[in-house]
Amino acid sequence: MTISQRQECMKHGLSELYSESITAKLLRAGVEQLLENNPPTQYPETVPQSGVDKGRYQAREVDFWTCGFFPGCIYSLVERSIKYPQSLGVDNSRVSLNVLRQKLTELGQTWSQPIRPQALRTDTHDLGFVIMPHMRPRWELFHDVEALDVIVKAAESLHSRYDPRVQAIRSWDTFDWHADVNITSMEENFIVIIDSMCNMDLLFYAAAQSGNQSLADAAVKHSRTLLQSHLRVEEYTRNGYSGNLYSTAHLVNFSPLTGTVKEARTAQGYSKDSTWSRGQAWGILGYAQVYRWSGHSEFLDAACGLAEYFLFRMEEAPDCVEVELSGLQGRRVGRYVPLWDFDAPIEEPQGPLRDASAAVIAADGMLILSQALAGCGKHRLSARYLEAAMVIVQDVLDLCLSREKAGLSVSEQGELTVHDLLHGESFDSVLKHSTVCNNAASFKRNKAQDHGLVYADYYLLDFGTRLLEMGICYY
Question: What does the UniProt keyword field contain (predicted)?
Answer without folding.
Answer: Hydrolase
